[in-house]
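During the second half of the funding period, the structural biology subgroup turned its attention to how the target accommodates small molecules. The most pressing case was zinc ion, which had performed well in the primary screen but for which no bound structure existed. We therefore specified the complex as follows and requested a full 3D prediction, including the ligand pose.
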Amino acid sequence: MKPPPKAADRSGQAIILLLVVMVVALLAVLWNYDLHAIVSSKVRVGNAGDAAALAAARWQGITMNMVGELNLVQAAMILENPGAGIDEVSELRDRIALTGPLMGYLAAQSAAYLNLSASDERRISSYYGSRLAQRATLYMTQGGAVPEPYEGAWLDYGTLLMDIADAGMVVECANPKWFLFYDGSHILLDASFYNAVAARYWCWFELRGQGPLLDGYDGYTFWGPLPSFSQRPSVNSEFFGTDLERLESSLDVELANWSTSGSNAETTISLWNTLYEDAVQNKNIGRFTAEINAPFLFTGTYQWHFYEAQSWRMDNPWPTYDDDFPFREGWSVRPEFNYKGGADAAISTFIEAEHLTPGIHMDADSISWKAAAKPFGFLSVTNGTGNEEVRMPQYFGLVLPAFHQARLIPNDISSRPVGVSEPNWDEHIYEHLPLYIASGIDAIRGSGCWYCRQLVQWEDPEFRAAGAAWLDAHSGDCYRSSGGGGGGGGGGGASDRR
Ligand SMILES: [Zn+2]
């Protein structure tokens, strides 16, 4: 016969049980707290990012309106006296085109900070600030390799960048347009390659016709050189720049170059009406003087600021074929807004996630958000028959005040580089890749960059062999998803990184 358990044993078991219950309850409370903290942080970080993108886009609009107004001032000066010196007005436009968007960069930080809590602010990384400070130092000391748009421009530019970095950064410009950029394509400049390596998405190699790479790769020299650099017009800021260009030319010539739609005579009349009305009504130029000097305005050679033609193309409408964004099938876009290019502002932001629960690993180390916004507006022009018409801001090519508002736009249709989902992308392609191409994986092994880690993975022969073997067996299962763009794809550990 078994003796009954002693009272002391029973109480010992109860204490253990009680301890277990208490530990579980404590974990639940902490877990709940984490969850709540993360969810509410996510909302605040999202609001911060949206507000920042809108602030930057609004300043893009302000910048172009100011440049446009100074084009109008110049037109009035020429209508009053065709021999008048316009150098100072032109330089003022240069200054605004370069520094106006940086006011937007600063405003974007303030807008973001206003949306964050004190505990969020403690978890802001210093990464953005230190990167921008590096760029600032480059311009303050060496002035960069690119010619200045006006004398002393790089010192102004570097000083302003340093001010932004010093003020504290929580938001980064995600669509910078570097003065010097790769002019051409290379597989290592394609973010989807790294995503495919990270996800072991072997179908990417099959669908891109890069299957042989998995078998044939025999070391870093296999990649071939990176494309050479090209140079963008330095009248624009690299961050949130508005894609303008300064041309020394006549309005007649530039109108003829620009007009792809509508007759040139028609646009000349409309532009004349616009410039003449503004000079007479807003700048008090005499009607008679203005009419006499009209030919000089159109045929004389002066410096003007124009929209950069490739970026601001008018025959490049928003995509409407897709099922979802940006505009549903059958939805109509006002013609004056229906161009995809030109200035837009894409941002990225992140803060470190806060973890209280011991031993429980949340799937994210940081809370991040991406957003994009764009300035919108239109011109009201008087055509040859005296009727008012609404036109795209870049209708004449010449920059004129036209922007009225800024709106959020989907990230996918912004000028944010495609497929870039991890930080360090620009640092990777401009700083790490040249080292790697020159001397191999050891040169970048310690960089800590996510993209470099994928290259380290790629260098492993077993990794590539696994991919080649999988494709040998399953390449027939790879298919292109029908909805445009490369996503989807069959099995094989495929995962959509977006
Ligand atoms: Zn890297």
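Two results from this model are relevant to the next phase. Residues 39-124+170-175+231-353+376-418 form one domain. The pocket of zinc ion is lined by residues 424, 428, 432, 444, 447, 449, 451-452 (CB under 6 Å).
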